[in-house]
Amino acid sequence: MQNPNAPHIPSPGSLIHNSHSSITRAFPYDTRPPSPPTVDIPASRCMGRISVTITPSPRNLDPSLLDLNTDYSSIIAHGGAPQEAVDQASSWEYSSRRSAQKIVDPSLWLGPLSVVRDKAWMEKEKVTMVVVKDGGVPAFPTLGPPAKKVCEELGVQVEAVGISGLQELIREFPRLNEKIVRHLVSVHKRSSGTQQGKVLVCCETGNERSAAVVVAYLVEVWGCDLLHALRFVLYRRFCVAWDDDTRRYLKNYEDILMAKRMRWQDQEANQRDAELATDETRTFKLKRQLAAVGFLSEDDDSDSNQDADMSTADSDSSEEALRELQRQAREYQHKTRGGRNHRNFAPFVERIPLGRRNNNDGTGGGS
Description:
The strands form two sheets. A five-stranded mixed β-sheet has the order 3-4-7-5-6, with helices on one face. The protein has a two-stranded antiparallel sheet with strand order 1-2. It is flat. Helix content is 41%, strand content 9%. It has two domains: 192 residues, Protein tyrosine phosphatase superfamily (Protein-Tyrosine Phosphatase, Chain A), CATH 3.90.190; 75 residues, no CATH class. The chain is built from nine helices and seven strands; from the N terminus they run αβαβββαβαβαβαααα. The protein is an alpha/beta fold.
């Protein structure tokens, strides 16, 4: 008879059967490699006013473009004022995809290639540069004869981008961003500030590759994070469409820029430390030279640890070298003592206290 208090031990066959029956397959099995993570743009509501604001950051500009740092706030970032884009999900019309939208007011536009052939619109908006996808040769094959003629008549600069895929496009981002910012600065300086450069970035539809170029511009030049840049461009031109590969490449480009910025910051910190150490070494050497010629008093040199074997000045030192040391000493004292007036150095002059001075008649005394 089986003991009711004994523990139940299932047979091996029943254990295997129960383990299989307790597993529910959620998705079909697949042998392909796992997909990389996607870059999701947060969805917005169709009701209410939804907006996103971007603010320029000059610290994110490439240090190799140091000549543009002075022009960043006034010309490239248009005074450094933040810009706001309002969600147009409820007010967007299908016909708007055939026109160009202003992304950065007033210098950067995004639209289809058809707007370049509209001479009236190009002349009214005063476009000065067109960035367009180039298939190779001959020159301007993507523009076509009508658009090419409009650009020639209006004197619009054309920057053709020869790419065949996303890998080539990500390599073109730094060059295109530099082209755009230098064009804005050149137009402003050439016209003495009376004309604003305007760049139109376009492709066949204005929704894919050209939109990726505009996002890369906001990430690199304006210092925006990728999600803010994607949402900003989407709110300005609601018909843009980035597939998973395009967003993934944009994320990789943002990671590259973040790594570069960290390297720039480390280089700046190391340079500041090196300059500080150089200044301290120069000050210490100056103190030793002044102490060697007997110019620096003990009070002024109390914070310097002089070596026991410090070399003395040569007896035949020239008078010009001594005057130079004295000049450097006065500058040092003015710098270290906050610019306060101190008595000038007068060597070999012994000042007798007023009470011990002799009168002209030989008698001592005084007031």
